[in-house]
Amino acid sequence: MSILHRLLLFLRFGSLLAASSDESLVHRFNDGDDDDTPLPLVIWHGLGDAYNADGMRLVGELAEKAHPGTLVYPIRMDEYGPRDRYDSFIGNLTEHIAKACADIAAHPILSTAPAIDALGFSQGGQFLRAYVERCNKPPVRSLVTFGSQHNGIIRFGDCDTSDFICKIAMGLIHGSPWGSVQSTLVPAQYFRDPEQYEDYLKYSNFLADINNEREVKNATYKENIKKLESFVMYMFEEDEKVIPKETSWFEEVNGTEHTPLRARKLYTEDWLGLRELDRKGGLKFRTAPGAHMAISDELLMEVFDSFFGPLNRQRGRSEPRPGLGGDDEL
Ligand SMILES: *[C@@H]1O[C@H](CO)[C@@H](O)[C@H](O)[C@H]1NC(C)=O
Ligand SMILES: *[C@@H]1O[C@H](CO)[C@@H](O)[C@H](O)[C@H]1NC(C)=O
Ligand SMILES: *[C@@H]1O[C@H](CO)[C@@H](O)[C@H](O)[C@H]1NC(C)=O
């Protein structure tokens, strides 16, 4: 795997990684007896981003504005931002999820919270779902995902001409998606081509498992998804990075055939608890206008207002409004 080695060397010594400030987003959590104390919020960023990047900091500030006193914890694989960004491309997702679980369980405030809220951007959305399914200690109340690949990707849209990491990563997946990339390349672990379904079931290191698609289902995954109060899935109307974009709604797209989640076995046989969650009104399919990860502050504020905040907050105070603008992130 010499090309992968070159990628690793490049990432370690290359200069394309923007320096990010080390300042932590973590605010003080006022965990007194006060019922108005907002639940902590964990955020998992997307491919090519870092936990302490400016965009993430702004999201944390908005969460604090919506619900003052919110402890915001951006999940990271490494305290050093450029290394955290590197880990969004490289690594074994079984280990990444286990690290997130361990970090949350060891955090002095998160570990004592009665519940937490979770916000996942792009691939971070399916990783947070894996946190719920595999760990859920502390349990997640509201899980909100934006442009996530819940049903995998067939391919990513074209990489930017200067994005060598993206190009090498995508090249490797298309070379041989079921080989060693399953333990080293993050997007390969949620690669899911319905035309290669048998190979996917056999070799997928992540998605086939957390989607309970194999013959033996994990009952814990279903129990934990059922415990969510809300699972809100945003799809970007003009998403051209994630193919097919309907994966953000768990839709099956096989060639020209589209099967919405509610018509799929995964739902009708309730492999994941999604049908039960839907019947109690907890499963929400939403669209955001614009391109992949083009989220406006207004939309984020609506989401924070509707789904996050104190444990005993009033529910469904407002419906999210569409928004525009934002940054470009996988
Ligand atoms: C199901 O998942 C849980 C949580 O990850 C794990 O502890 C357990 O071993 C799994 N069960 C099976 C049958 O794989
Ligand atoms: C990923 O890591 C887990 C835990 O260390 C290991 O059991 C598994 O075999 C690894 N996956 C691959 C494809 O190497
Ligand atoms: C997708 O369609 C092909 C035929 O075009 C079929 O062989 C394959 O099993 C389908 N995959 C799934 C997951 O339904």
UniProtKB/TrEMBL annotation:
First and last residue of the signal peptide: 1-18
Cited InterPro entries: AB_hydrolase_fold, Palm_thioest
User: Which Gene3D superfamilies does this UniProt record tie to the protein?
Assistant: alpha/beta hydrolase
Q: What is its EC number?
A: 3.1.2.22
In its UniProt record, a GO molecular function of this protein is: palmitoyl-(protein) hydrolase activity
EC primary class: hydrolase
Q: Which UniProt keywords apply?
A: Disulfide bond, Glycoprotein, Hydrolase, Signal
User: Family assignment?
Assistant: Belongs to the palmitoyl-protein thioesterase family.
Q: What is this protein called?
A: Palmitoyl-protein thioesterase 1
Q: State the species of origin.
A: Canariomyces notabilis
